[in-house]
Design a protein that fits this description.
Layout (H helix, E strand, L loop, with lengths): L4 H12 L6 H10 L11 E2 L2 E2 L3 H6 L16 H6 L17 H12 L42 H13 L9 H13 L5 H9 L5 H11 L1 H15 L17 H12 L4 H10 L8 H5 L17 H21 L18 H12 L1 E7 L6 H21 L2 H17 L5 H13 L3 H5 L8 H13 L9 H20 L5 E7 L6 E4 L7 E5 L16 H8 L6 H15 L20 H13 L4 H9 L2 H4 L6 H6 L12 E2 L2 H12 L54 H5 L18 H9 L1 H17 L4 H13 L5 H17 L4 H10 L6 E2 L1
Antiparallel strand pairs: 1-2, 3-4, 5-6, 7-8
Helix pairs in contact: 1-5, 2-5, 6-24, 7-9, 10-11, 12-22, 14-15, 16-21, 17-18, 23-24, 23-25, 28-31, 30-31, 31-34, 32-33, 33-34
């Protein structure tokens, strides 16, 4: 006679264990060898630790996982015996053996007894990770070679070198030093006049005076804005399939440049970007700063649920803020507690809640001089626009159109064609449902104007196949576009603002946008939070730059160091967590962080302290004995030799040629690019009309960045794709880069312009012109053999084509490794 399933299971259990199951001996091994969450032995199920008595008995988001004395009521038993694979634990694996299920069932029915005080973390506690400990200003270390050190930075570096028995490298040549500082602080090489003045200045303070001049240059804001825009993943388009242009994205870029040039303290810089709109009596400029949070991608594919699209934006914002200010991969906690760092899934969604309660808002943000002409011209413009709309009967047609769309909102499925029209509108018209459901007389004037323009462009079923009406609206569209062009320029900006109608925030189970867990309120990561929970975005932004948070100052100074030496004191500048690298000079990192905060969070002061140090001023030449022991120059026995970032390669060529347009700020530009690149975008809709005149020669910072078809020269030289935040760029060495420098239109034009400059500005002799060409391109005089070889090359080219000889010489100089490298 066969046994019943229940008896069979009990028999199996008894055969394994003569007595009732013991937690440590029988139950924990089952839990610890199986993953009841996403991975590892942590057994995390959206924050639930099944081998942790208090956590398991307290329960997760749908009640206790384990009900002592009642296995039938315990969710764990329902999950491990579920028939559907997607519901069964462990996920993606074969079911637990019947015998193990029986052990768990019997243990629960017997009371689910956990040993007193024993949890999954009962192993010996590890000390806190170095990055999460408070910043304490260390004492400057003692050094033997005291005369070498110029400031506190050098004491830390020298102490470490002396420990190895090494000495620092000698100071770089003055011409090299000026070019290095110029490129690092302004992103441009020194002019021959600047170099001549510096080399002729024999005063002890000559270098410091040069550094101060560079810090006060408007080029400083442009250079360091590029670094920050990488973090913000700035772009001039939406991304995704349609990748529509964002005509006002540059207004945030202007804000960054201006803030850096004014040396806005980094704590204010932080607050205005994350919560400028929440500041008391917030100014337009403070609200423009929140454009940082508008650099997320926007998916305008009609088939994507708007809730899902918005959730992806929130994920992007949360991950970006975590990486930029905390230096942590917080996104690992979207689906489950972080596998390595102490960030729980609850922490992640509490962080997201700050942004979940905000909405995107476009505002007027005119530049100086724009408001007067605009306001003078606007009454006549408005009158003519009203006349045109009435002439073409738009006010009579729109109410029916709006009512049918509202009907589609309230009763989806009733009229498929209007469902489709609404779905398309939700994708293409930001805040469509909210605007449609707001009575016309209570709508924001900007929203009402957008709605009218949308109707004229995409009237859908309201017009149907009535060709006469369609033709009239096409005619109206052209007239409205022409009328818009008569209105004086009036800049706008993309910002965020608090949403008074925001729904409560929830943990998303397994990270799925549509699976709501428990409600959460905003909060910083619990392991860092401190005494008081920051409840608003403004409080959170202030907490980020408060003494309670040890990460922001460390992360910020590390990234500054990375720009000056090619890598940070913590190489993994994007990850200060457990899986990141430890600092090479921990004392120096904390000394810089404490100095940064104590000195008013001044970025210029931080940068000056670095470039004034003897460590920064070292020559970059390698030394065989040290090179073999420290091939990556971790201990800083010399300076780093770095290939210029993409934009600076282009800028340097334009500057040497005398073509660079000096204007600061303004809209993005579209210089020439190879044919066929723009056409790779969605439906060829993103036209690339090459700029003419000065716009053709703006700095690389201002080149229009189309996410799906980015400017190829920038990508060849390792520019990031702007889809996610980028803390450190890669540096590759490919044949495409050489081809770019030789054949790209901008570099060819630069070579011709440089040749013209040599013929106009330098004496007629070949040797004199070569000397001048070296000063213009490399900031130094040529060595004897260099002059001889280049003169011979010039003579050879002159025999082939006299008119192009100096262009050929210029191409050689602009293609030198030294030209595209910061020594």
């Amino acid at each position: 006679m066969s046994m019943t399933p229940r008896i069979a299971l009990l028999f199996a259990a008894v055969s394994l264990h003569a007595a009732a199951p013991d937690f440590a001996r029988d139950v924990r091994p089952i839990l610890q060898k199986r993953c009841f969450g996403c991975h590892g032995a942590a057994m995390q199920s959206n924050g639930l630790r099944l081998d942790n008595g208090p956590a398991a008995l307290k329960g997760g988001y749908a009640g206790p996982a384990i009900v002592p004395g009642d296995a039938a009521a315990s969710r764990i038993m329902h999950r491990i015996t579920a028939a559907k694979a997607q519901e069964r634990m462990p996920p993606g694996e074969t079911p637990l053996p019947d015998a193990e299920i029986a052990v768990l069932r019997e243990w629960i029915d017997d009371g689910a007894v956990y040993p007193a005080g024993e949890t999954a973390a009962s192993a010996k506690a590890k000390p806190p990770h170095w990055a999460y400990q408070p910043i304490r200003r260390p004492e400057l270390p003692a050094v033997r070679q005291q005369g070498w050190a110029k400031n506190g930075i050098d004491r830390f570096v020298l102490a470490r070198l002396e420990k190895e028995g090494w000495t620092p490298s000698p100071e770089a040549a003055r011409s090299t030093l000026l070019r290095r500082a110029s490129l690092d602080l302004t992103g441009l090489p020194p002019t021959p006049e600047e170099a001549a003045r510096f080399l002729a200045d024999s005063s002890p303070d000559a270098y410091e005076h040069a550094v101060d001049r560079l810090l006060e240059s408007p080029r400083y804001g442009e250079k360091w804005a590029r670094h920050w825009l990488d973090l913000a993943h700035y772009a001039d388009s939406d991304g995704y399939e349609k990748d529509l242009a964002r005509p006002w994205a540059w207004r945030y870029r202007n804000w960054v440049i201006d803030a850096l040039n004014r040396d806005m303290p980094f704590d204010e810089f932080t607050i205005e970007q994350l919560a400028g709109d929440e500041l008391p009596d917030a100014t337009v400029e403070q609200r423009v700063g929140t454009g940082f949070l508008r650099n997320t991608l926007t998916n305008r594919e009609a088939g994507v649920d708007r809730g899902e699209a918005r959730f992806e934006q929130l994920v992007n914002r949360t991950n970006t803020v975590g990486a930029v200010w905390l230096g942590m991969a917080v996104g690992c906690a979207q689906c489950h507690d972080h596998k390595y760092d102490p960030i729980t899934q609850r922490d992640y969604y509490r962080l997201m809640a700050y942004f979940d309660r905000a909405e995107e808002k476009d505002i007027d943000a005119p530049l100086p001089g724009e408001r007067g002409p605009y306001e003078t011209a606007f009454p006549a413009y408005r009158a003519e626009r009203t006349r045109l709309l009435e002439e073409y009967e738009v006010p009579a047609m729109m109410p029916v159109w709006e009512s049918r769309l509202r009907e589609a909102i309230d009763t989806p499925g009733k009229t498929p064609e209007w469902d489709f029209a609404l779905t398309s509108m939700k994708a293409m018209f930001d805040g469509a449902v909210k605007v449609l459901q707001t009575p016309a007389d209570r709508r924001d004037s900007r929203d009402q104007r957008r709605l009218v323009d949308y109707f004229v462009e995409r009237n859908g079923p309201a017009i149907g196949l009535d060709k006469a009406k369609l033709d009239r609206l096409k005619e109206l569209r052209k007239k409205l576009q022409a009328l818009d062009r008569t209105l004086p320029h009036f800049t706008q900006a993309y910002t965020i603002a608090d949403d008074p109608d925001a729904a409560p925030s929830h943990i998303r189970l397994r990270g799925n946008w549509d699976r709501m867990g428990v409600e959460v309120t905003p909060g910083a990561p619990a392991f860092l939070e401190g005494r008081k929970t920051p409840a608003t975005r403004l409080e959170f932004a202030r907490w980020l730059v408060s003494p309670e948070n040890p990460l922001t100052a460390r992360v910020a100074v590390n990234r500054a160091w990375q720009e000056f030496f090619g890598k940070g004191l913590v190489r993994t500048s994007e990850d200060f967590g457990v899986m990141g690298e430890k600092p090479s000079h921990p004392g120096l990192l904390d000394w810089l962080a404490s100095e940064f905060a104590a000195n008013g969070w001044s970025m210029k002061r931080l940068h000056k302290s670095v470039v004034m140090s003897a460590t920064y001023r070292q020559a970059s030449r390698t030394r065989p004995g040290i090179q073999s022991k420290d091939p990556e120059n971790t201990l800083l026995a010399r300076q780093a030799r770095l290939r210029l970032p993409a934009e600076l390669v282009r800028d340097s060529a334009l500057a040497a040629a005398g073509l660079l347009d000096p204007r600061v700020g303004g809209p993005s530009v579209k210089p020439p690019q190879p044919a066929g690149v723009a056409e790779l975008g969605y439906g060829g809709a993103n036209k690339w009309v090459a700029a003419t005149g000065p716009d053709r020669y703006r700095r690389g910072l201002y080149i229009h960045f189309q996410r799906t078809t980015p400017y190829p020269m920038l990508m060849n030289f390792d520019s990031p794709d702007s889809n996610v935040t980028c803390s450190r760029r890669g540096r590759s060495n490919t044949s495409l880069q050489a081809l770019n420098l030789m054949n790209d239109v901008v570099f060819h034009e630069a070579a011709k312009a440089l040749a013209d400059r040599l013929e106009k500005e330098a004496p007629a002799g070949v040797g004199e012109r070569i000397d001048y060409a070296y000063r213009v391109t490399l900031g130094r005089a040529p060595a004897g053999k260099e002059r001889e070889r280049l003169a011979a090359f010039h003579d050879e080219q002159a025999r082939l084509d006299p008119a192009a000889a100096w262009t050929a010489v210029s191409r050689v100089l602009l293609n030198l490794d030294e030209f595209v490298t910061r020594e």
